[in-house]
Amino acid sequence: MSKELSENTGFNISIKTLIAIGFGLSTIIGMWFMLQADIAEAKTLPKQEVTKVEYELKDELIRKSVLQTEKDIQEIQKTLERIEDRIYDR
């Protein structure tokens, strides 16, 4: 059977639940205002430009990482071939 909602319908909430809801809302509201303040501060800061030296260093690091990863993959392939040889008695 369904109950109808009316002006006289009531429900019970414990004090503990009310405190938890209040704490949760205050936390969310506080975080919202902190985020807005951080955004406003970020808008006033000058844009950071990437220098040519910084770009070249990052590019070099990425290229070295790719080459190292390629070497690692080749070593893994060799190891896998040796494992397959042992398993299949080649």
Key terms:
single chain, 90 residues, mainly alpha, 2 helices, 74% helix, 0% strand, flat
Account of the protein in words:
The model has no long low-confidence stretch (mean pLDDT 91). The protein is flat, with a radius of gyration of 31 Å. The protein folds into 2 domains: 11-47; 49-90. The protein has helices at residues 15-44, 52-88. 74% of the residues lie in helices and 0% in strands. With 90 residues, it is an all-alpha fold. It has 2 helices and no strands.
H/E element string?
Answer: HH
Helix and strand content put the structural class at mainly alpha
Report the major sheet: none
Rg over CA atoms = 31 Å
Mean pLDDT across the residues is: 91
Query: What are the segments in which pLDDT stays under 50 over at least 5 consecutive residues?
Result: none
Report the total helices: 2
The counted number of beta strands is: 0
Taken as a percent bin, the fraction of beta residues is under 5%
Number of domains: 2
List the helices and strands and how they pair.
Layout: H1 15-44, H2 52-88
